[in-house]
Write a structure and sequence with these properties.
By secondary structure, the chain is mainly beta. The chain contains two helices and ten strands; from the N terminus they run ββαββββββββα. A six-stranded antiparallel beta barrel has the order 4-5-6-9-8-7. The two termini are about 15 Å apart.
């Protein structure tokens, strides 16, 4: 952990577990307490073209803002078929692109989005090259509310002892 002493404009290198030593009465820490959902999904167009879809935000029941890769030929009206990951049994889930934004952002309207939680995988940052054997390892210790497409990675350094200390 790098500590900047503003008064002296000096820099000190310390350990993250020393954080409580630098906090003063009245200091506030703000925590993003969302849990990472299995938001990375595999889909295909009716043509058979394979896509990766990342759930970004549930806008309302059965409607999600997503990031599609590749998105170049995924227009409003395009139907997508989502299949369970890893060959596990389950029925496909159908969605239609209802809106298209910039940079691969799309809005999908699902016939039924309730199976999605069992169909995806936890999205990992590009610097993690090995799939997680336990997706709980990619949750912060204070995560409570479902809904994040990525862990607040700076928060992964917090432990229950550090929070209580």
């Amino acid at each position: 952990m790098m500590v900047l002493h503003r008064g002296t404009r000096s820099v000190q290198h310390s350990h993250f577990y020393d954080l409580p030593d630098y906090l003063l009465a009245g200091d506030v820490l703000v925590f993003n307490d969302t849990r990472v959902i299995p938001a990375r999904l595999r889909a295909q167009k009716e043509t058979g073209a394979k896509l990766e879809v990342l759930l970004l935000q549930r806008l309302r029941p059965n409607t999600w803002q997503v990031l599609v890769k590749p998105a170049k030929r995924v227009f409003p009206g395009t139907k997508l078929v989502f299949l369970p990951q890893g060959g596990s049994p389950g029925n496909p889930v159908i969605a239609e692109v209802s809106d298209a934004g910039d940079g691969g952002i799309r809005v999908l309207t699902f016939e039924d989005d309730s199976p999605l939680g069992n169909m995806g995988t936890v999205p990992l940052p590009p610097y993690i090259h090995t799939p997680l054997s336990d997706p709980e390892r990619y949750q912060t210790v204070y995560a409570r509310l479902e809904g994040s497409a990525a862990a607040p990675t700076a928060g992964l350094h917090f432990t229950p002892a550090l929070i209580e200390g």
